[in-house]
Automatic annotation (TrEMBL):
Pathway(s) served: Phospholipid metabolism; phosphatidylethanolamine biosynthesis; phosphatidylethanolamine from ethanolamine: step 1/3
Segment forming the signal sequence: none
GO BP terms, alphabetized: phosphatidylethanolamine biosynthetic process
A molecular function GO annotation: ethanolamine kinase activity
Protein family according to the UniProt entry: Belongs to the choline/ethanolamine kinase family.
InterPro entries referenced in this protein's UniProt entry, alphabetically: Kinase-like_dom_sf (IPR011009)
Gene3D superfamilies reported for this sequence: 3.90.1200.10, Phosphorylase Kinase, domain 1
Lineage: Eukaryota, Fungi, Dikarya, Ascomycota, Pezizomycotina
Annotated protein name in UniProt: ethanolamine kinase
PANTHER family, per the entry: CHOLINE/ETHANOALAMINE KINASE, ETHANOLAMINE KINASE
CDD domains from the UniProt entry: ETNK_euk
Amino acid sequence: MLPPASEDSVSTPLRYIPLSYNHAESQASALRLVLTLNPDWETPGNNIEFVRFTDGITNTLLKIINRKPGLTEEQIDNEAVLMRAYGNHTEILIDRERETKSHALLARRGLAPPLLAQFKNGLLYRFLRGQPATPTDLIRAPVWRGIARRLGQWHAVLPVQKGPMTMSPERRSLLGRVELLGSQGKAIATTTDDISPIQMRRTGPNLWATLQKWILALPRKTEQQRQRRKHLQKELERTIAELDDGSGIGEEGLIFAHCDLLCANVIIVPQTRSLTLRGDGAEKVQFIDYEYATPSPAAFDIANHFAEWGGYNCDYNMIPTKSVRRQFLTEYVKSYHKYRGLSNAGQEEVVDKLFIDVDRFRGIPGFYWGVWALIQATISQIDFDYASYAEIRLGEYWAWRREVDGTRAQTGEEVPLRERRWAQA
């Protein structure tokens, strides 16, 4: 068992490489980075190869391997390096200092691959053997059981940071001036801000503070943008008033959450045939990519994962039904109690409460990623239709609101597919 510990545990300082990854010369710049990290790879007999992963829609991810003669695939993978370069201007969305600390914390607990080095616009870390899950994998019982157990472990053993948030001067400047950079690197003119940030119930980084920073960073060049920004701020105030009550599991209702548990961030770990299901109906999985990890209500992290069952295409037919959600939560609570060292007594009551809480949070992932996508539509150079994605995800939030307050029923409109699927037994 891994007991909770201070986030300030002593650790070796992470190596810093004063180089950058350049998209225009991808392999050349990645090669410079890995040879700086592993200079012995430059000697005769080494055969360096690059494998690009394209599942993400924010960062560039490269696997760098050294295919030395005589090594097995497993031996090659054990020495492989993953290079993750940050997307264009994503520092507006993501606190990179916080991300690195989170990764280091997870690595110390055996919940993340070891960090190897940090460079100007990214990280180098050890490769984790396995197969990234697909949306189809997520609906397979052996996989979701494994995810539930791993998530219960995460939430049980990882400490929740307390105290005020800290950030670099660069990030403070970005969020203080609230100047978004356009895709060509030109600053968008700003006006005096007419939004007063919410005074949070709890200081320090957390889900609600992240959402507040994102709304402050929304574009406001036009009157339409300013009005939408104010509208979303009112919805955030409303949501926090309703849901930030400290009643969930963890410390004051918060656990250390992944907050981005989509299929590509779930790695199905290879095992011998006799251990594939470990005799108890669950695959072994690991989680990767911790850039959004932060203290959060457990119900949000779980509801967000359920939302990701639909994949990037938001196929709501894939969303788990009531019975599947309850089975998932039963596995999760068993794991949470195990790693917290809690008694098995009363687990059913915890499942009942968490089932209700996840239902209360089911619309919040749409709000979270909808606001995120509105910013990405302004700053990202990745070939992805963030603007349309923002409307789809915010539409999930509005559909949930209309279902909860009864306005959809009053108009006689058909129940949206996502809400129908969520209510299915």
